UniProtKB/TrEMBL annotation:
Domain of life: Bacteria
Species, as recorded: Catenulispora acidiphila (strain DSM 44928 / JCM 14897 / NBRC 102108 / NRRL B-24433 / ID139908)
Name this polypeptide is given: Uncharacterized protein
Length: 108
């Protein structure tokens, strides 16, 4: 028996979680080291984004989507593009999706 993960719903949760990190660090959120004085939401978003980034097999589309979103975070097209790239990565790697689901699921 397998627990199917709804990658669309998970991608939306991930997008919501990584927005603060991209807002704070821009594209640097992909590679920036942990900052002890950063707000929890920013650090959690950075951790999630980096977990996806470092485990993704095809990073250029994700990098491009993060760049587009960082350049115009009020742009709904850039937001949709980033959500789509996150969804593609999660759909292509069930183990990563499960790990990320735990990260965005909060403390349980």
């Amino acid at each position: 028996m397998t627990d199917a993960i709804d990658t669309s719903a998970l991608a939306t949760k991930v997008f919501d979680a990584v927005k603060p990190a991209i807002g704070a660090y821009g594209t640097g959120a992909l590679v920036r080291d942990e900052q002890a004085n950063a707000p929890h939401a920013v650090e959690l978003g950075r951790e999630i984004l980096q977990e996806i980034y470092w485990r993704d097999k095809n990073v250029p589309p994700l990098e491009s989507a993060v760049n587009d979103f960082a350049a115009g975070s009020q742009d709904e097209d850039a937001a949709a593009g980033l959500r789509l790239e996150i969804k593609k990565v999660l759909a292509s790697d069930a183990a990563l999706a499960a790990d990320i689901a735990k990260m965005v699921g909060g403390s349980s």
